[in-house]
Amino acid sequence: MAAEGSDWLRGRFVIFNVCRGRFHLQAAGQGALIGIPSQSQLHLHALHRRPIMRSNSQALKHRSSHDTEREFGGTLGALCIPVFLPLTVLFLVGVSRSPDASVLQWPPPLPSTEQLWDPLALVLLLGWVALHALLYVMPLGKVSEGLVLRDGARLKYPINGFYGLCVSSVLLMLLLGLGAPLGYLFELLLPLAVCAIAVSFLFSVYLYIRSFWVPSHALALGGNTGNPVYDFFIGRELNPRIGDFDLKYFCELRPGLIGWVVINLGMLMKEVELRGSPSLAMILVNSFQLLYVADALWNEEAVLTTMDIVHDGFGFMLVFGDLAWVPFTYGLQASFLVVHPQSLSSLGAATIIALNGIGYYVFRKSNSQKNQFRRDPTHPSVAGLETIATATGKRLLVSGWWGLVRHPNYLGDLLMALAWSLPCGFSHLLPYFYVVYFAVLLIHREARDERLCRAKYGLAWDTYCRRVPYRIFPYIY
Ligand code: NDP
């Protein structure tokens, strides 16, 4: 039985410890399987491990290509998304800097080659990634362990992203003090986006090729269907590393996320160049998004338990998302404001600040509550919360933030997303791109997570859904 590859198995069991030739499986449903009582545990001995010890390309021959459920529209999605999304980035960046800033103008004005390519952009991009790679390997901050992998190992991760943000901020302040024209990032936006897209493609090809040399237990369960287009897109290897340097974890929160706030700062400096001082709207957008990025890096350890790290392979989807999509589309409001200044009343600004504050509060409190509960359910801040048991031994919160809706953290995130767009007024759709896209992303992500949780927790998950019927928006969805 090729235990690792079987979706049948995954749907019904939780493989929660695999070590020294022994699988430790637990029934995921509650007595749903004939002959396997709830809480039953199977021990499959070394004999059953043999199939996954073959080279992973060999192992693939023994799998049917359809035994892994495909996401994002399967092969068609995997073919179209890598074409469509990079073009979307270039389109949005181009439109945000144009006088009309109309996303409905068709056909969109095509940029010239000079507008798309500047060798300086490539130098800056590679230099930026190298700087963060250097900061990553610096012995700063603590080292944490990730979740237990299928081979029983736990990888170590440096928790020093916040230092990366601080060091980059100091360097930027120094550069500004020396008179560096940071506002030039406005002119460089399109070439930078082109380079980030090109780097994402090349890097994904590298990741795809190298994944054939790793043992099969190092592959993501959903990422080795045998269909090259889909596997390239979704990512074959779960935790690609060069030595101790974890490529996925590095890309997840550092060059792209910190790059996003640097681009924002560049837009603010461009405004200063053009108008003498930054507008209130620009300051709000910069501050809100800096808070979001700083929070993510401050709580970097939490990323170790996210779907991206635990479940998804590292392929084009995550590479492009981390390196191109996030830095160039999440901050469109700032580039929009350079060309379309907005005046904001004090009342308007106060309302927007309050909305961002509420969103941040819901987002942070709910994420912290779940993280605390998962780390130490006996901690006084979570010990009094009502929970339900699951067959895996883990419990699910049904009161507190997680009793309000099934994804209170997404609710808070969406409130913040709206607050980032509102400073741009109501004259254009473009600044609202992020909130609309993000709502679609989180609704889709929520559905993926529900599927995974139902597979993990079986009937206990259904009980949770009955107790907490709304997914993201109370009484609405
Ligand atoms: P979540 O933090 O929402 O985690 C989902 C997991 O939490 C489930 O798989 C389950 O895992 C656990 N869980 C679910 N319900 C309960 C419950 N009732 N009690 C206890 N545990 C529960 O996952 P995400 O990674 O999607 O989101 C993390 C944050 O990142 C969110 O705030 C989100 O908004 C944000 N985000 C931001 C993005 C951006 O681009 N800006 C993109 C994606 C996410 P288990 O039981 O195994 O612990």
UniProtKB/TrEMBL annotation:
Superkingdom is Eukaryota
How is this protein positioned relative to the membrane? Multi-pass membrane protein
Which EC numbers does the record give? Answer: 1.3.1.70
Q: Which pathway does it serve?
A: Steroid biosynthesis; cholesterol biosynthesis
Spell out the molecular function terms from Gene Ontology.
Answer: Delta14-sterol reductase activity
Q: Which GO terms describe its biological process?
A: cholesterol biosynthetic process
Q: Which UniProt keywords apply?
A: Cholesterol biosynthesis, Cholesterol metabolism, Endoplasmic reticulum, Lipid biosynthesis, Lipid metabolism, Membrane, Oxidoreductase, Steroid biosynthesis, Steroid metabolism, Sterol biosynthesis, Sterol metabolism, Transmembrane, Transmembrane helix
Top EC class per UniProt?
A: oxidoreductase
What the protein does comes down to: Catalyzes the reduction of the C14-unsaturated bond of lanosterol, as part of the metabolic pathway leading to cholesterol biosynthesis.
* Name used for this protein in its record: Delta(14)-sterol reductase TM7SF2
